[in-house]
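Changelog note: in this version the structure field was regenerated for every chain. One regenerated record is shown below for reference.
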Amino acid sequence: MTELIKRSDPRFFEQTCYKPYDRHDYKIVCESKTTVVESWEEVQEYWWNHRQINPPVIEVLDKKKGFK
């Protein structure tokens, strides 16, 4: 079994930047409606609550803003 790097190890990597990141909006396309949301968390919530009934297609919309 492979050992994982511990969080205390200087080689441990979690993410590159902790600044808020706001580069995309997301369009949730279903048979009955289309909704645009501003965060990936909203997309995940919608997906988990509605995928059994009507699996949506997720489109990524570029805002061209980047980091706040």
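Spot check on this record: The longest helix spans residues 40-50. The mean pLDDT is 82.
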